[in-house]
Amino acid sequence: MEPFAELTFETRLVNFPFGKLTEPYHPTSVPIYQTATFEQSSASGIDSSYDYTRSGNPTRDALQIQLASLENAERSFTFCSGIAAISIVTQLLKSGDVIIAGADIYGGTVRLLSTVINEDIIVEYVDTTDLPKLESALNRHANSEKSKSDNHQILVLIESASNPAMVVSDIRKMAKLIHKVKGGLFCVDNTILSPFLMKPLELGADLVVHSATKLLSGHADTTAGVISTNDKELILRLAHLQNAQGTSLPPFDSWLLLRGLKTLAIRLERQEKSAHYLANWLTTHPAVSSVKYIGLKTHSGYLLNQSQSKGCGCVISFETNGDSNFSRCIVDNLQLFKTCVSFGSVTSVAELPILLSHASIPLSQRSRLHFPENLIRISIGLEDQFDLQNDLSNAFEIALQRQGSLSSVSSSSSLSLDASSPSASGSPSISSSSHNSPKSKKQHRNFSTHVRTTLQSSSAKHFTSQRRFSSESSSESSSESSSISTGLIFSTKECDNPSDCHPSISTKSVHSGEHQRNYRKYDGITTPVVFSSAYKFDNTDQLIQYCENKFESHEYGRYGNPTTSVLEDKLRKLENAADCLFSASGMNAATTMMFALIPANSRIITTKDCYRRTRQFIHQYLEKKMGIAVDIIDMDDPMSCPEQLEILLQDTSKPKAAMF
């Protein structure tokens, strides 16, 4: 890892050496070692690196090595959930030891400390923003009768920004106070910021934990926890507990987390940008009384957070100008924001903490919390910020109408949108990079328009090879032409019902297709993966209805799959197409399209710089075996292509042409 030590955090997310994990085939993605046990080279097993997946697994090791590098830690350990990681931290303690926890930490952590850990471990909740109060608690426990034992420990457990009250504690000053007392141990739960924005170990913490389910994974498709440390003694104890307790992260979940980590920086940058915009807007809304977001300059911890991190995350909490029922009405009427626990994924979510994430906190302990019952917590995903603003604004208006305070939201209550903005125009959202496209892209678009016009006038078919999705492709599709996109999919025509799609491409990419609730029986916010070669019918009547297209179902895996159907629906909407079929590969999509739609003894017009494998297929199969004529045009000068095309199409001695 030494040659990579000077690389930036962002580069290490994507391009990282995985130590002893060497592969004979050199894959660019870490393999999933989905095995319970490993064959030994001898009866003694001395020479083998692995014996049993609970004790060690190459995929999990790759993840732990990368996480340690990202945390600037000596070692990282992964577990099956965030609360499992915190539970392991508490097991570093013994009877008579002390836990001093932040006053408003996560409800699941409170439940663990209140009902699960050793009853002889003393738990005290302290407002850690009050350093004299923390120092007093530390000294009191350090000078108690039980502290006289040689290995007495006092664990202080806080969150880098408390969830959901967004209270910020001074980690550097706390570390100095904690390490002054005998047996002081400092653990920071950095779930809400991630190592991309903050590294608590560098600020003086002994341990840092994460619920990797959230920002680190980023896709809400796995649960995982992480503990990182530089302390050699703690490393030995944590390694023993990980193996002995059997709570280590399985190989497939490790691989999912490795995949999610690659996009952490770019995801969080986008999420934080949207969170800043929405937090500022919320401060202007009459339905909102206060906003808790550490990126606001009005936040009490704003300057402190700036001094110990490089960002503010994507979680916003706000109190409403109403009671808990008013807040419930807002949450119940959100459409893009999903009502669920957790945060940090690509999908925006909303909840009332008092009813969900913190519902387990006993009523007797709620007096110390820094948030009231009408507090709403939202986590900002990758949807377009204007779409999210509109969603919130609509929910506010419904709640205000039902409350009877206002008949509608005042026109001055929301930020005005520029006439060219996506929400104002109702057109697909295009990123700033698309608005400032290089000249070559503009020429290509002009060329595409010319080609479309020429082909339509000659009754030829137009097939566009497209190996990357872009907002340009969606906005340029024409209902008069048959546009076929290849890559992982090919699709035809454009959407006949634009209202079926959200206005921005970024929001479509998160939500389109996911509405098929018959495929999501238990309402998980990610689509279930269905592995089945055949599908059953309850009775023959149901089968007959299926055959008559009166009952939606599946029959055989080769014909269709519920998971694939959701993906095809999502891609159909991204392409503004009437239909979409998913294929095994980009090459399979291209060849299937050509076999199905280009008849024998016809003609193909293509370009000399067409993808090599596609060109080989055209020449070796279509031209030689099917007798299809092939004409080549030169794309080096895009503006001359329409002229070349027109000359070829006017040659009536040749068969009708299809362009690819």
UniProtKB/TrEMBL annotation:
Does the UniProt entry include the keyword Lyase?
yes
Question: Which species?
Answer: Hirondellea gigas
Highest taxon, organism lineage: Eukaryota
InterPro entries according to UniProt: Cys/Met-Metab_PyrdxlP-dep_enz (IPR000277), PyrdxlP-dep_Trfase (IPR015424), PyrdxlP-dep_Trfase_major (IPR015421), PyrdxlP-dep_Trfase_small (IPR015422)
Q: Where is the composition biased (Polar residues)?
A: 448-468
Molecular function via GO: cystathionine gamma-lyase activity; pyridoxal phosphate binding
Q: What keywords does the record list, in alphabetical order?
A: Lyase, Pyridoxal phosphate
Cofactor(s), by name:
pyridoxal 5'-phosphate
Q: Where is the composition biased (Basic residues)?
A: 438-447
- Ranges of biased composition (kind: Low complexity): 417-437, 471-483
User: What does UniProt give as GO cellular component?
Assistant: cytoplasm
Provide the protein name: Cystathionine beta-lyase, chloroplastic
Q: Name one GO biological process term.
A: cysteine biosynthetic process via cystathionine
One Pfam family named in its UniProt record:
Cys_Met_Meta_PP
Record keyword Lyase present: yes
Disordered: annotated span: 417-483
